[in-house]
Amino acid sequence: MAHSHSTTHFNPWHDVNYGSKAPQTVNAIIEIPKGSKGKYELDKDSGLLKLDRVLFSAVHYPAAYGFIPQTYCDDKDPLDVLVLCSVDVVPMCLIEAKVIGVMQMIDNNEEDDKIIAVAANDVSMNHYNDISELPPHTLLEMRRFFEDYKALENKQVVVEKFMGREEAYKIVQDSLRLYDETFRHKNHQAQLSML
C-alpha cells in the first residue's frame, strides 16, 4: 500500500511563534552552537538545517547563533540573534532569549542587524539587562568574529555600532511588522482568492 504524503510540512521560521513577551523576550531558534566552525543555516524550503560552509580555522562562533521566528528583514531573511548562554546549546533548540542590545553591521553594503540576547533560563546570564553591562571583551569578540570571518572570505563587513535594548526592541518590532506585511498579508490574499 502506498504512503500518502501530505504537502504541508513544519517550517521553524513560519510555524514557531516569536513569543508572547516580545520584543523584551523572544523565542530564538539556534542554528549554530557557540564555538562551532560550521556555519549551519535553515533551509527555507525544507525547514531542515543545512551546512552552508565550514569557516576558516582561526574563527569560531562567539555565542549561540540563530534567528527569531516570524520575523523578516530587508535581506530577505529572518532577524538574526546571538544568545549568550553558559551551556552549549544544540542546533534547532528553541531558547527563550532576553533581548539586551543589537550589533549593527553593514554586510556587502546591506544593513544586517544582529540582536544580542541572554538565555532567559540561565541564572549565570539572565541578570544582564543591557549590553552596557556585559564584560567589554564579549562585545569585542563578537565584533572581531564577524569582521574576521568575512575578511577571510574576502567580503567587506563593517560592524557599525552596538546599541542598547531600547533600540533592539524597535528592530525586533520592525521585523515582526515586516513579516506580517510580507507573509500574513499574502496568505490572507491567497485564502481570499480561493473562496
Total beta strands: 8
Strand-residue fraction?
25-35%
Mean pLDDT: 90
Helix content: 25-40%
**Main β sheet profile:** 5 strands, mixed, barrel
> Under the CATH scheme, which architecture would be assigned?
Alpha-Beta Complex
CATH superfamily: Inorganic pyrophosphatase
Which fold does the CATH topology refer to?
A: Inorganic Pyrophosphatase
Low-confidence blocks of residues:
none
Report the structural category. Answer: alpha+beta
What is the terminal-to-terminal distance?
34 Å
Q: Whole-number radius of gyration?
A: 17 Å
What does this structure look like?
The longest helix has 30 residues, at 165-194. The chain is globular and about 55 Å long. The two termini are 34 Å apart. The protein has helices spanning 12-15, 136-152, 165-194, and strands at 25-32, 38-42, 49-54, 64-68, 79-84, 94-107, 110-119, 157-164. It has a 5-stranded mixed barrel with strand order 1-4-5-7-6. It has a two-stranded antiparallel sheet with strand order 2-3. The chain is an alpha+beta fold and 195 residues long. A hairpin with a 6-residue loop joins strand 2 and strand 3 (49-54). The protein has one domain (12-193): Inorganic Pyrophosphatase. It has 3 helices and 8 strands.
